[in-house]
Amino acid sequence: MKENDVLVKALTKDQNFRVYAINATGVVDYAQKNHDLWSTSAAALGRTLVATLLLSNSALKGKETMTVRLNGQGPVGFMVIDADANGHIKGYIQNPHINLPLTKEGNVDVAQGVGTNGFLEVLKNQGGKEPYTSSVPLASGKIGDDFTYYLAMSEQIPSVVGVSVDINGENKIQVAGGFLIQTMPGADDDAITKLEKKLKEIPSIPTMLAEDPNPEHILDVLFGKDNLDIVQHLPVSFECNCSKEKFAKDIAGIGKKDLQQLIDEDHGAEIVCNFCGKKYNFSEDDLIKMMNEKEKE
């Protein structure tokens, strides 16, 4: 990941807003290269990675984790993202090779790629037997709007989520980042009105991060440097915690008939991690050992 890949958390000194800003250019660049993403797929997955990093940092603590599933029935298909409270994230997209025509404004058409005939689903693993699950219909397929709608409907928190991924003509990630603004209880109406006006006037996220890759710059533009108390700087990275042991448990969990079929017909198995693309090979002897363990059960 890149040294500027960091999430900044702050509170406005007037206690009206809790705010987050992130530069995740390295995270999205890694995902783009690792999954061989074409432009529409890269922008869709990239925006969802950025938004999930913002959401997970605002909603999780300790060892809690979060899974985001998003499927609008568009050409890019479904996306699955896993994140924790410590800036680690991984994700994949069903159809990596989607490159739709640009919008009239010359931007990647994420909304068309994602579609709107579906849901944004969030699963929080907070230590209980079952994760807490909530979902909302997609608002626009542009990702930022969809996460904003999720926070309003499922978390009951008036919020604004802005995310952006800038890709050049050679399919290279130029910049990826975003912000999350949450209204605090009892926030001043005038402050909210002023912020709404400011959001319509600010430069684009790529423009702000091009001016200064430190995501604090986004918050400075929005609220002014002197009006913020910085709470945290958190490095963010694309990290997969897959292992041969974890996949071995998955294989051991399939039925005896299917396991025997792998032994008799394939004489082994190769598992590819959806999140990072790493391959794990299991020999015929490995599978026979698993079958023997099953016989003892």
From TrEMBL:
Which residue pairs form cystines in this protein?
240-242, 273-276
Entry GO terms, CC: cytoplasm
Q: What is the lineage of its organism?
A: Bacteria, Bacillati, Bacillota, Bacilli, Lactobacillales
The subcellular localization recorded is:
Cytoplasm
Q: Which UniProt keywords apply?
A: Chaperone, Cytoplasm, Disulfide bond, Redox-active center, Zinc
Q: What is its main location?
A: cytoplasm
Q: Which GO terms describe its biological process?
A: protein refolding
Q: What does this protein do?
A: Redox regulated molecular chaperone. Protects both thermally unfolding and oxidatively damaged proteins from irreversible aggregation. Plays an important role in the bacterial defense system toward oxidative stress.
Put simply, this protein is called 33 kDa chaperonin
Entry keyword Chaperone: yes
CDD domains, alphabetically? Hsp33
Task: Write out the PTM section of this UniProt entry.
Answer: Under oxidizing conditions two disulfide bonds are formed involving the reactive cysteines. Under reducing conditions zinc is bound to the reactive cysteines and the protein is inactive.
Task: Look up and give the organism this protein is from.
Answer: Fructilactobacillus sanfranciscensis (strain TMW 1.1304)
